[in-house]
Amino acid sequence: MNLLKKAAYVAGIAALAASTALTATAGGHSTNLRIQTHFSEESPSGKLAAEFIDNIQTMSGGDITIEMYYSSSVVTSVETFDAAATGILDCDMTGGAYQVGKNPAFQFVGDIMGGYDSPSDQYSWLYNGGGYEAAQELYNKY
């Protein structure tokens, strides 16, 4: 996955986590999110994740804190999805392709390895071609 695709993916996950966290803090309660990513802290995508954390904590006035776990430090990358589903972690910031063992269709919402010429091709499918709905249906099974 090239840098632009990774950045777009991280931004999408960030928006999801932020909207979830902002809903949780609406009552004036502080929230701590434990998120794991497969990126290393030193990688460009890892640095974007750190910037995301800083932005969320700043925008929330400190009501949202995020503990980011890099490079599979809590569970392996393949296990992150299940760890979030069972409460070991709060969020999964990896790619859907790690879940192809559950269902091969996860490949289409993850690292598609040449399936599209540009990130805009994937976004066109997601937002204009029924891909988002298909992805929601897929994720909701798990």
Walk me through the structure.
Helix 2 links the parallel strand 1 and strand 2 (64-69). This protein is mostly helical and 142 residues long. Helix content is 46%, strand content 11%. It is built from 5 helices and 3 strands, in the order H-E-H-E-H-E-H-H. It starts with a helix and ends with a helix. It has a 3-stranded parallel β-sheet with strand order 2-1-3. Helix 1 (3-25) packs parallel to helix 2 (44-59) and helix 4 (119-128) crosses helix 5. It has 2 domains: 3-94; 102-142, no CATH class. It is globular and about 40 Å long.
Q: Secondary structure elements and their pairing?
A:
Blueprint: H1 3-25, E1 31-37, H2 44-59, E2 64-69, H3 80-85, E3 91-93, H4 119-128, H5 131-140
Parallel strand pairs: 1-2, 1-3
Fill in the keyword field for this structure.
single chain, 142 residues, mainly alpha, 2 domains, 3-stranded parallel sheet, 46% helix, globular
